[in-house]
Amino acid sequence: MPMKNEYEVRGYATVFDTPYCRYRDVKVEIWEQINRHAFDLTEMNNVPLLHDHEGKPLAETNDGTLLLHLNEKGLFVVADLSKTKESRHYARMVKDRDICNMSFAWTYDKNRTFWRMTERKGRLIIVYTINRILELKDVTITDTPANPDTIAL
């Protein structure tokens, strides 16, 4: 899909079935992953694109400046950031690689979460899999993602 304009930003707000570390100390590691079917029943029609989960929306699904698409890899984002001076500024930051990643804010069904615990070299390893996203609150461009496998281009 060709870029619509120089202020278009694309990327993955999350990738599926790829564990990422949420916490680590000398005794425990906690890892999280998103199941590829976690969004199957999730509404995604009133979602903003933010910077670091804060501030005014840079793009929104409601006005057509933000498109969200689920594919085999993850939650793919296409955003037109041409509408305001602030959004164009963030588009340039992404293009200049000052901001390289994405993330998302969400609520999930704790009853549909799978936990697995193992031990490795005296350290407790906990991996939990989110199987059902209840609400997608935002997608965000960030340079401090929870999941380092996300990307903003």
Overview of this structure, please?
This protein has 153 residues and is mostly beta strands. The chain has one domain. The protein is built from 1 helix and 12 strands. The protein has one helix at 85-95, and strands spanning 8-15, 20-24, 28-34, 48-51, 54-60, 66-70, 74-80, 101-108, 113-120, 123-130, 133-142, 151-152. The strands form 3 sheets. It has a 4-stranded antiparallel beta sheet. β4 and β5 form a beta hairpin. The longest helix has 11 residues, at 85-95. It is globular. It starts with 7 loop residues before the first strand and ends with a strand.
What is this entry, summarized?
The chain has one domain (about 10-150).
| Secondary-structure content class | mainly beta
Q: What's the order of the H and E elements?
A: EEEEEEEHEEEEE
N-end to C-end Cα span: 14 Å
- Ranges where pLDDT stays below 50 over 5 or more residues in a row are none
Number of helices in the DSSP assignment: 1
Shape: globular
Largest sheet: 4 strands, antiparallel
Radius of gyration (Å): 16 Å
Overall residue-averaged pLDDT value:
95
Count of folded domains: 1
